[in-house]
Amino acid sequence: MLAKLSDEIPTGEGWLYEPKWDGFRCIVFRDGDSLQLTSRNERPFTRYFPELLDPLAAALPSQCVLDGEIVIPAAGDRGLDFDALLQRIHPAESRVKRLAAETPASFVAFDLLALGERSLLAEPLAVRHGLLQQALAAAAAPIHLCPSTTDAAMAGRWFVEFEGAGLDGVIAKRLTDPYTPDKRTLVKVKHRRTADCVIAGYRVHKDGNGVGSLLLGLFAADGVLHHVGVAASFTAKRRTELLAELAPLTHDALAAHPWREWAEWSSAAVGAGQRMPGAGSRWNAGKDLSWVPLRIERVAEVTFGQLQEGRFRHGSQFLHWRADRGPETCTYDQLEVAAPVPFGRLVSGA
Questions:
Q1: What Rg, from alpha-carbon coordinates, does the chain have?
Q2: Which of 17, 35, 45, 260 could pair covalently with 155 via S-S, beta carbons 3.0-4.6 A apart?
Q3: Is there a single domain that holds both residue 151 and residue 243?
Q4: pLDDT tens-digit profile of 257-288?
Q5: Is 345 within a domain?
Q6: Does 245 score more than 90 pLDDT?
Q7: Residues designated as active site
Q8: pTM metric for this prediction
Q9: How many CA atoms does the CB half-sphere of 44 hold within 13 Å?
């Protein structure tokens, strides 16, 4: 099931609320001794999270299909560690095994799609949720039942307090709804804020025409400019406009660019036909992440949902240029950062 975005938590009778986890969406298939983990788009996860297989086998009925999220608790009671989760998608089995021991994952279940020979897709959420609670009644860490409530006030508290753990917001589901794959029947309420960022470069759109994304930077207290994310999702017309608009800023851009070493390293590697660490996507091996440097002169206001480990989680949206602000004013100090929340509190819903 997919979710449509809302600015407010829906209220009234018939809603079930859950925290919105920021991990890997995962469908668990169990048939006796066979256990398979896949993404929502049926990409295999089983080999990347071997530490979950025995706990899932111990916790689940012998035949079932679950919908949930794979997450990694952060060290020091800081909620979730999405960067550690990304590191798990790696071709080397030895690395996967090492990380499984060093940063073990957890599974948070929030729906039950089949039990025994019975498909539950057409059943209302109220039925599926009740059966899920029974099925996981004896589950122990690292397998967790997602906390839920029918109290909108409690959902509002989760929305505010759980942000510090890296959670994305709140999901609202109608208790009468069946399970509808690939349809946006859920309501997603996410954190959305704005920040003024340095535009330090851009990436060309995948079709080769215009600006695909803008590289965003913020200055730390020591004066270092950090890459915090990208702003993308421009129309074809706007991509072309941006290319012309930013062209003057490409002249002598590397001369004093704070990311000069990154740009030169990337250019040299591409010229030599070398694949750079971090220069491609784990999810799309053909994705080109090379970039065009710009002189550090432009500031833009962008939206962002969440700051985690010094970077914006998920893509940001460009709002407008800030001609009234200098790049040096674009610092982390402008951002509100929520207090950390222990992972144990998240899964308990306390």
A1: 22
A2: 17
A3: no
A4: 999 988 777 665 555 443 333 344 444 444 55
A5: no
A6: yes
A7: 20
A8: 0.76
A9: 8
